[in-house]
Amino acid sequence: MRFKKASGRVELAEGTRNPAFRDADGDEPAAEHSAGREDHSARTEDPSAGREDGVAAVVEPEAAVAVVGDEYSQVRPYAGMPKEVLLRYSSQARYRVPREILFWLTVCCTLALVAVTVTVVAVSPRCLSWWQASPVYQVYPRSFKDSDGDGIGDLKGIVEKLDHFLYLNIKSVWISPFYRSPMRDFGYDVEDFRDIDPIFGTMADFENLLAEMHQRGLKLIMDFIPNHTSDRHRWFNLSRTRDPHYEDYYVWADCNSTSPKPNNWVRTVSVFGNSSWTYDEVRGQCYLHQFLKEQPDLNFRNPDVRQEIIDLIRFWLDKGVDGFRMDAVKHILEAEHLRDEPQVYPDRPPESVTTEWDLHHDYTYTQLGLHDLLREFRAEMDAYSREPGRYRYRGPRGRVAMWPAGVPNGRKLGVRNIMVCVWLGRFMVTESYDYHEVEKTMMYYGTRLIKESDFPFNFYLLDLPHNKSGAWAKHLVDLWMANMPLGKWPNWVVGNHDRSRIASSAGPTYVRAINMMLLTLPGTPTTYYGEEIGMENINVTESQIQDPAGKYNASASRDPERSPMQWNDDMNAGFNNKTNVTWLPVHPDYESVNVEVQKADGGSVLSQYRSLSSLRQTALPFLRGWFCYVHADANVFSYVRELDGHRAAYLILLNFGTQSAATDLSSVQELPDQLEVVAATNPVRDGNTVQKSSILTEAGEGLVMQYSTYTRFHPKHPAECFVSEKACLLETIGILYKC
Ligand SMILES: [Ca+2]
Ligand SMILES: [Ca+2]
């Protein structure tokens, strides 16, 4: 060995004298390299240059190249070897070729990876948001759970029952208002939007509720009431005393206690007399109120009011809430000219106008500018969510939560067949009743380019009980599906705090079939508390009436659908287990209709709700697939849920009529002759096989049937089918793609 290592340097001595040098790469004489060596010589004229120790460089270029001569052919490269020698080695074919192969392999792999990533992103359908993946559950806080024994539900009570949502596979919870309020309209008359009413708890209780919900992966949707405040709100007191800043915060018009009102505007006469105007003695003018006289309308023509509302939205976003349900949005703006609204019966005298039904509300509902306002709210929510560090949803144990967009039924949840989405956007739903003007409702979806609400509430199914037939059910469903803008996401409501419970209005016979429809239609179902166990209205005597609307007109009372939640068969149905007080009576059927009893019964309404909710979340066709009408008649409504590329498809058949029926679907060629019942309102039919030529159902009975085929129904029936976004499944590798 001729190498000597000294003072961290490599010394080559004898190699300089080796005349037998040949380029290892080509056996060329060393002369070929003489030109190159001239350069080296030039660079090393002053061998000591750059050396701190002043010692002359011991590696001469001539020496370096000589090392690779035959004499040193056994020497292998190692770290620390002089650069020149290394370069000689590296130019040898046996080193160069593998190196170049590795280099180009790396380049090709990187390009392929980028191409695959771009392709996957390009062909993947959009992630489902949390409000699409889960049903929305409405909590009416007065009635859900009372934690302190005062007879009224509260925020701590909700915390006690959070596991109920998980049991139902529900992630999205809308809680009706719990702001500080004089409770003239049980929270929809807000005295302070930034405070919690003591009846429900404190701000600390709210923050704890939100933290507990997020800890469990639950989302909280706040109720938000932009149209009006309570007449006890600080703004109203400042406005009626003509504080310069607040003078125009509400809609004021000249009038006095004896002269005619500013115009003929009328709303909800049963509650507050025959005018939407009330004279205020402090200010000496009338103020507008589209609801109770204790709920003065805000003046959204005033930019300061708009800013106040945006500040309130930001206040609650700061707290971490996940979405808003915007109350009574069509009432937000009024025409500034204050003209009389046209009478429905123009020939009648003006005095005959006493109810809202006597007028065309051309100047008080859905005014120009309303959607701009809502889009402003929406943009604010989205902009806020995008601010760095603003919105970070954390799931259990601090992990960023991931939402499965659906996995094929019966399979384990695995990486291969899961679409993982981390979606951090806020949710907005609007409430507006425009029954006969569906196009007005659809405008709340926004446009293709401008987002408004994620969906406006769809109340058509509230009318299901008015005509018990399959054809009527299809008609109501189609009212939405046929009018919804392309690519939007449907939703379904069968009950809320303002409307009779569906189990009472339709009858308990139909509860299971209605829940089955709710959970198998495309889009987001909304479940009002108690619907999952089939709770019914209570009877409220005149002395028990709590609802202000009911105090004016008992038939308009909304108390019957607001009775305490029935948790078990203990005192007060478990709603208040501390004292024998409840703000409204508990339904007498609570001993048999309650959560605890139904949990123990695999065939109960609750168990059925739970399994259907689970099916909806795990079977891809329900979240991602086509929805196609198959059949509708006097009794039966039937539809298919299917997904291209996915072998499993589902036929749902619901008997909303009053008689049993034998439905013959043999003309539907896409269906196999035999179908397997995977969910039935009558549990004894679970797992049965039915023939498509004669599917028997009793009144109120529903079946979810699964079948296996790649022959799809929708290609030949495009007029009967809807899908929010086309997606196909590559079943072999479990990947969804746009198609
Ligand atoms: Ca309480
Ligand atoms: Ca208004």
Automatic annotation (TrEMBL):
Its main location: membrane. It is found in: Apical cell membrane. Coiled coil: none annotated. One of its GO terms (cellular component) is apical plasma membrane. Gene3D superfamilies: Glycosidases, Golgi alpha-mannosidase II, Oligo-1,6-glucosidase, Domain 2. Residues 20-54 have a biased composition (Basic and acidic residues). The chain crosses the membrane at residues 101-123. It is a single-pass type II membrane protein. Keywords: Amino-acid transport, Cell membrane, Disulfide bond, Glycoprotein, Membrane, Phosphoprotein, Signal-anchor, Transmembrane, Transmembrane helix, Transport. Residues 1-54 are annotated as: Disordered. GO terms for biological process: amino acid transport; carbohydrate metabolic process. Disulfide-linked heterodimer composed of the catalytic light subunit SLC7A9 and the heavy subunit SLC3A1. The heterodimer is the minimal functional unit. Assembles in non-covalently linked heterotetramers (dimers of heterodimers) and higher order oligomers; the oligomerization is mediated by SLC3A1 likely to prevent degradation in the endoplasmic reticulum and facilitate heteromer trafficking to the plasma membrane. Disulfide-linked heterodimer composed of the catalytic light subunit SLC7A13 and the heavy subunit SLC3A1. This is Amino acid transporter heavy chain SLC3A1. It comes from Menidia menidia. The lineage of its organism: Eukaryota, Metazoa, Chordata, Craniata, Vertebrata.
